[in-house]
Design brief:
78% of the residues lie in helices and 5% in strands. By secondary structure, the chain is mainly alpha-helical. Helix 1 crosses helix 2. 8% of the residues are buried.
Length: 85
């Protein structure tokens, strides 16, 4: 149980760092409750990905990068070229 909580907390901290990083390059699209929904969806999808694909490192990394990119594209007004590079 403690390992699960540590993993979720680590993912949450990583998400907040990613959020701050992407917000430095563009403006936030939506404000208010939709931000909470976006980050709950991102947290649950990354947790699902990391626990279900724990045996397949390469697949997990590729899908994780794509998930983060799509959620940050939804969250921040930024071009796709700037998002992936």
């Amino acid at each position: 149980m403690l390992d699960l909580m540590q993993s979720i907390l680590f993912i949450f901290i990583e998400m907040m760092c990613c959020k701050i990083f992407y917000e430095s390059f563009g403006e936030v699209r939506n404000k208010g409750w939709i931000n909470t929904i976006q980050f709950i969806l991102l947290l649950s999808s990354i947790c699902f990905l990391s626990f279900c694909f724990s045996e397949h490192f390469v697949i997990r990394q590729i899908v994780g990068i794509l998930m983060f990119s799509m959620f940050m594209l939804w969250h921040v007004r930024i071009s796709l070229k700037n998002l992936l590079c």
